[in-house]
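Lab notebook, bench 4. The sequencing result for the construct came back, and we need a structural model before the next group meeting so we can plan mutations. Quick request posted to the team channel:

Model the 3D structure of this chain.
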Amino acid sequence: MELTIWLVYRSCVVTYLYANVKHFFFYYEPTFSVLLCWLLV
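Done. Here's the predicted structure in token form:
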């Protein structure tokens, strides 16, 4: 059950980053890099 919740949460985060990729790249690039590495772990 917890795994399902985690996968849904992760999918939401990925979707959010994808929708705002330009904003993250230009304004929050360090934060984006950290989140990207975290998602790839």
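The first helix runs from residue 2 to 19.
Will bring this to the meeting.
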